[in-house]
Amino acid sequence: MKPLRGIIQTAALPAMASLLNPLPAGINYNSTEVVFVNQKALATLPYYFERGQMSQVWGTVTSSPRVNSELSTLAKASFVAFDSRFFDILGPNPTLEKLFDLPEHNVHEAPNFLPAQNKVFVSNFNHTYEYLVDLSVEPPALQNLTTDPPLESVNGGFIHEGKLVVGTDGYRNSTPPGLYLYDPATNRSEPLLNNYRGLKLSTPDDLVVDQLGQVWFVDAPFSYVAWTYDNPPELAPSIYCFNMTSGALSVVDQSILWPNGIAFSPDNQTLYITSTPLGPDNSTENHAIVAFDVLYPHTLANKRTVYVPDTYFADGLKVSEAGNLYAAAGSGIDVITPEGDLLGKITAAGEVFNNLVFLPRGEILVTGVQGIWRVRIREQGIVHY
Question: By the 8 A CB rule, do 318 and 358 touch?
Answer without folding.
Answer: yes
